[in-house]
Amino acid sequence: QVSYVKKNNHFFSRIHVADIAQVLFKSLIYSKPGEIYNVSDNKPCSYDQTISYASSLMGIQTPPPVSFEALNEGEMKNFYKDSKKVSNKKIKKELKVKLYFPTYKEGFKSILNNIFDC
């Protein structure tokens, strides 16, 4: 059975592969030597939000959650110990990036459209 980890106040920044490619390309043109750039979309959110949204797009029931506390020690539990909100202001300002997929919502819609167009 499919399930997902639910942890209150746990956020994660995501990015679509097309936007990663754009950042890499523009960094070749506009980056300053020695600079470090965070790469993420505009909307850090919880895994719960992404699962709920993807399920609604596909017209399926959201899978049942597994609580963070119920996880065994290991890589999965370590991943959920910290939130990972990343700002993308620097790539937008210095690299002149305009995200094709500003949030996970546009990314999920594109992925589903590509799946059903094949």
Question: What does it look like?
Answer:
With 118 residues, the protein is mainly α. The chain has one domain: Rossmann fold, CATH 3.40.50. Helix content is 43%, strand content 5%. It contains 5 helices and 2 strands, in the order E-H-H-E-H-H-H. It has helices spanning 17-30, 47-58, 75-79, 89-94, 104-117; strands at residues 4-6, 65-67. Helix 2 (47-58) packs parallel to helix 5 (104-117). The longest helix has 14 residues, at 17-30.
Roughly how many Å is the radius of gyration?
A: 17 Å
Structural class: mainly alpha
Number of domains: 1
Number of helices: 5
Shape: flat
Spans with pLDDT under 50 lasting ≥5 residues?
A: none
Tell me the CATH superfamily: NAD(P)-binding Rossmann-like Domain
What would the CATH topology be?
A: Rossmann fold
Query: How much β-strand is present in the residues?
Result: 5-15%
Per CATH, the class reads: Alpha Beta
Mean pLDDT: 90
Describe the secondary-structure layout.
Elements: E1 4-6, H1 17-30, H2 47-58, E2 65-67, H3 75-79, H4 89-94, H5 104-117
Parallel strand pairs: 1-2
